[in-house]
Amino acid sequence: MNNFTFSRTLKAPRDLVFDCWVKPERFGHWFSPASCESKLLYADVRPGGYCHQETHGDEGEVNWNKFEYLEINPIEKLVFVVSFCDRNLKPAEHPMFPEWPERLLTTVTFEDSGVDTKVTVLWEPLEASAEETAFFMSQIDACQIGWSETFDKIEKTVESLQPVS
Known about the structure:
By secondary structure, this protein is α+β, with helices and mostly antiparallel strands.
């Protein structure tokens, strides 16, 4: 299997967690690793739509991503393609790893777990060469760290959106 899977259970109801993935005012703030700050430049979250994100790293570097939405099944599943691009949406290589696949198919599922929500991300190279796929698979540990840091941010986001008990 040439994919990466990451799961975490968040202490929040499924509709709130799902909203953090599809509401631009929420998604644009948490979707990046810990050392990065991101903002959405454009958001059209619907099948056939896309988001354009700008991310600033802690050493001053700037990167852009495009998220192309294929499927949105409310509170259950999202499917989108994520890729690096430039400020004008022109496809671009990964800024540090030119061997990185140009596009990654991303499937996110949301499972009700009582008052909590289990979120699972499946990341798969899309139309990648054998070399790109091999490089992706060699970076699974880095993917684990990046997604873990990203989920730390969504945990804080959902926590801040819930009523204090």
